[in-house]
Design brief:
By secondary structure, the chain is mainly α. Helix content is about 60%, strand content about 0%. The longest helix has about 35 residues.
Length: about 220
Amino acid sequence: MKHARILGCALALACGIAAAQQKNINFDLLAAARAGNVPTVNALLEQGASPNSRNRLGDSPLNMAARAGNVALVKVLLEHGADVNEANIARVTPLMSAAFGGHEEIVRLLLAKKADPASTDRLQKTAMVYAAGNGNAGCVQALLEAGIDPNTRYDAATTALMWAAGYGKVDNLKVLLARGADVKARDDRGMTALAIAREQKQADAEALLRAAGAIE
């Protein structure tokens, strides 16, 4: 019995040490990802760090890389099995982060790895909402090519066209209009994209929508 207890203690100690070492290497991975240090991230992953480690905000290395627009880092993490749909505590996914930042290549990389474009964060926003209102035409185009309907309704019955109009994203408007976005659609306030553009004093967006036959 004495030997069994000693063996049990030794095994528990070894497991504790292994867990601490794993925690430390994962912490180092998060720090390297935050710094955008691709060689260090790759080395730590090769040593057994988890590509799906998360910091106190729930951000994974992939979410950090997507937000920063670090294509090389995204590729390394994907090669090591990073979860493309792992969201942070605000439910923001790597795809949303990339779309918000206008990082088209990363958006396409994530979509190719089956990132879910329909996921919503705590504000009920999707990657398309972020792409249309904050990103760029390339990100919008990538999401449309992935199967997102240009007339999908989001929170408050808004559409991607409305988000692009409200933020004056003329190039995004052009892409959405070319794919059949409905200029007559109204949100739950009864406002069209044109009305929203006028409300937000987005003159260029307003002019483009009027030329496309939009109504208020």
